[in-house]
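Appendix B, example 12.
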Amino acid sequence: MSLLSAAHFCVRFGETEVLHDISLKVDPGEIVTIVGPNGSGKSTLLRALLGIVPVAAGEVARKPGLRIGYVPQRLQIDRSLPMTARRFLSLPQRHRPEAVMAALRRVGVPEAADRMLTALSGGQLQRVLLARALLTEPEILVLDEPTQGLDQPGEAGFYRLIEEARKETGAAVLMVSHDLHVVMAASDRVICLNGHICCEGTPHVVSNAPEYRALFGLGTHGALALYQHVHDHDHTHDHGHDHSHEPHHHHPHPAKAESDA
């Protein structure tokens, strides 16, 4: 049974349709990464799947009793609020002190326990947020651009933590990321989003899709530069593609192209 699934859902903010005809699923143990340009609806997609944002049409289903560990894109901290990392991790449900310390050790920041959240670096705070997510013993980790604002060593270290957590717990990972080189190395399946699902499949399939290349082009040192998305493509590029050599058989489910109008 899929942990999360969605069928033809749309999200509207007022009169504006932000997401259109989204169908996807996340199965146990897999890493699924969502990529797309700024304003493409990536964070909204995660929030709709979690039930934070209502859908205007279609449906979203979560496995009954699904345990979700959520790491938001950024945490707004009231600087007048004196709260240590240890106290933060014990809310909203009381976790045993030894479980809190074990979680902080697991993510490599035990020294943060008695420091104020406002005194932590960006990388330390993201690790504390990951510790909080892991305390729920999640079946799925949902991460919204978790390394935004971190330097390259910080990013690499954080992605290693996610992979270690996945191996230790068997949790699935659903992640929005702008680090495309990491996405292509670490994901079982990639979803390319720009208001609708442009293309989906294994990293190999997606990186060779014309829709993906319309959005992203190779830049310097293997980084990928963002290009304006133009809906002048069809979604029939990968019919007949031989997936037999690929380690995960998640066949792409291309969606119909929509007008930008």
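Residues 219-261 have pLDDT under 50 and may be disordered. The radius of gyration is 19 Å.
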